[in-house]
Structures are given as structure tokens and as C-alpha cells.
Amino acid sequence: MLESAGSGAPISVFAAQAARRYGPRTALIHGPQRWTFAEFDAIVDRLASGLSAEVPQGERACVFMANRPEYVFLQAALERSGLMRIPVNARLSGAEVAAIVEDSGAAVVFHDAATADRVGSLGGSKPPWLCPVDSDDAVGGPTFATLQETPAAPDHLHRAGSDDLCSINYTSGRDLRAAEGRYAVPPQLDSGLSQHADRLGHPGR
């Protein structure tokens, strides 16, 4: 159920609220491509609904790709579907990526052409679903295009609570170390985020 954005609200709620308030305004720009807040929110809803149908809430998902719009869509969709995001530096070696996937127990690894050469060897006792965002060569699960075409299922979205983990972030270096993050927006950031959303919705302010 979608709650109003406020102190302690999951960050996914802020994106949905921005779509309601600033629907036709530009939210994301990548080269010649532009997405409005409403378009962004619709894409995220479909992706999150597809993810909810494939992966149980609370599972981990690696995002291993170059900077691109799909990275932003996935960040919001993972939060909205209640999955834990594991951002992986696109410069890491195949061995380092394999170590992160093994240590985290990631159920799915989202990647692109820039990182595809380092995911082919991922395996172990429970190989993850490998889902490239720029091709239909998915292994172990549906393609990214299929996820994007999933009808929105509101009852399966925004289920994570403010005390649930939303992210596991690994440091680089010889010894991988993980730090955890939660869905909640701390009260001291709440007003700042709301003001930032106002500025995004009203260019020039």
C-alpha cells in the first residue's frame, strides 16, 4: 500500500509522490532521450511488478552495469518491489564480482554489454538469474524487456517497511566488506528531500 511521503517513509514513496505532483515535467534525461515523472513512474511500476512475480521480497539483486537509464529505473524498481539492491562497480574484475554474488547470495544480476564479459562465469551451488538490460540473452529468468511489459500490480508494490534493508554496499579492495542500508528516510533528511522534489518539479526555483 502506498503511504504518504514523510519521516520514516521508504524512498520509493517519494518517487511515486513526485509522479502524482509533477507528472508531465521532465524527470530523467539521457542524451536525446527524456522521460517525464509520469513515464518514469510507470516504467518503475511495471519493472517492480515483474520483479515481484519472479523474486520473493527480501531477496538480493546485483546491479552491475555502466551508467545508463536502466540503472536508475532498476534502483527505484528494486526499492518498490522490496528487494535488496547490491550496486556493483562496473570496473570490478570477474573474480571480484563472483565474490560479491557468492557472499551476498544474490538471486539476480542485472548487467549490460559493458560488463557481460564478467558475468558468464557466475555459478556456484545456486547460479543467479542473469538479466542483461540491453539484450534478450537472459539466463535463468525472463528478459528485461519482459519485465518492462509486465502489467502494474499495485498490491505487490511498496511492501517494504522503513526497518527493512534496502541495500548492501561492498567496498573495493583485497578484502570485500559489506555495509547495509535501510529503506527509511531519516527525519533530518525528510524536509530536504521534499524541498528538492519541489525544485525538480518547478524549474527555475
Largest sheet, order of strands side by side? Answer: 4-3-5-6
The unreliable regions are 181-205
> Which percent range fits the helix content?
25-40%
Q: What is the H/E string?
A: HEEHEHEHEEHEEH
CATH superfamily descriptor: ANL, N-terminal domain
Give the CATH level 1 class. Answer: Alpha Beta
Question: Architecture in CATH?
Answer: 3-Layer(aba) Sandwich
Number of helical stretches of at least 4 residues: 6
General description of the model:
By secondary structure, the chain is of the alpha/beta class. It has a single domain (11-201), classed as Rossmann fold (3-Layer(aba) Sandwich), CATH 3.40.50. Helix content is 36%, strand content 18%. The chain contains six helices and eight strands. The strands form three sheets. Strands 4-3-5-6 form a four-stranded parallel β-sheet, with helices on one face. A two-stranded antiparallel sheet has the order 1-2. It has a two-stranded antiparallel ribbon with strand order 7-8. Helix 1 (11-22) packs antiparallel against helix 2, helix 1 (11-22) packs across helix 3 (69-81) and helix 2 packs across helix 3. The longest helix is centred in the first third of the chain and has 18 residues, at 37-54. The radius of gyration is 17 Å and the shape is globular. The model is unreliable at 181-205 (pLDDT under 50).
